Amino acid sequence: MFVQKVMLYVSTAYMFCFLMTVNVGLSILHFISPSLAKKMILKMGEKTTMTQNPKFKYEDWGLTMMSSTFVKSACHHMWLSLGQEAFKGHPAPDSPVFTMKGEKSSISKFVKGASRFGDRFKQLVKDFSDVADFLVVYIAEAHSTDGWAFTNNIDINQHQSLEDRLSAAQILLREEPLCPVVVDDMSDATSIKYGALPERLYVLQAGKVVYKGTEGPWGYSPPEVRSFLQKMK
Q: 9 with 82: CB under 8 angstroms?
């Protein structure tokens, strides 16, 4: 695991440099040529599927890429990611979560074989429920109203208590994820151990991490998980 930890620190340092370069570069470009900056941001949005989300227009999220709140939020996510304990081929760390009834549980009690989700995730659940048990862990809000917020988004502040987190998770339940939903505890133990902010996909088998997706939003790839699960059928 030592090698994986070293690689984690190196990749995080690289991502920090990349983040600052993108933020400063886009800000300068926007000052010189707003239309060209918009074109580049939309190109980035294609990778994260933001441009395919009918709920948001470019004006709702595009300009936030040049904001200080974006930098602050991204840096916070990277800092927490340094506490990762989940690495491919190694034991899957257990961590406390709470059911939607507020009862304390743990990851290991839900995962026997195998979070943001949408139609692609739900299709995975439908197609592979015979080979995998799916679980959604609701963690700290990535785009809280009092943080890196998008306009025209759901109004959710950073969770100050477990009750806040459970209440926010009810909004997620309305999307009918087709699998159990639990919430991270207020120490963000699961999010930190799995490097989950802002979102990440995993496959666990026999107590080990057998698939570890790249950190979202750019690395969030249900099709990649689909290809992996097809090999398990």
A: yes
Q: What are phi and psi of 29, to 5 degrees?
A: -65, -40
Q: Which domains does the chain have, with CATH numbers?
A: 1-230 (3.40.30.10)
Round to whole Å and give the CA distance between 209 and 200: 13
Mean pLDDT value of segment 90-112: 87
Return d(Cα 152, Cα 123) in angstroms, integer: 26
DSSP state of 213: P
Q: How many CB atoms lie within 10 A of CB 152?
A: 10
Long-range contacts of 24-27 (CB under 8 A, 24+ apart): 26/65, 26/66, 27/66
176-231 confidence digits (pLDDT tens):
888 899 999 999 999 999 999 888 999 998 889 999 998 877 778 888 999 999 88
The answer to whether 132 touches 231, Cβ cutoff 8 Å, is: no
C-alpha torsion angle, residues 167, 101, 220, 158 (rounded to 10)? 30
Confidence of residue 116 (pLDDT cuts 50, 70, 90): very low
Q: For the chain, first and last CA: distance in Å?
A: 29
What global pTM score does this model have? 0.75
Supply the DSSP string of 144-159, one letter for each residue.
-TTSSPPTTS---PPP
Indicate whether 118 pLDDT > 60: no
Task: Show the tokens assigned to 182.
Answer: 């639990």
75 phi, psi to nearest 5 deg: -65, -40
Q: With CA atoms as reference, report the closest residue to 170 among 145, 197, 138, 141.
A: 138
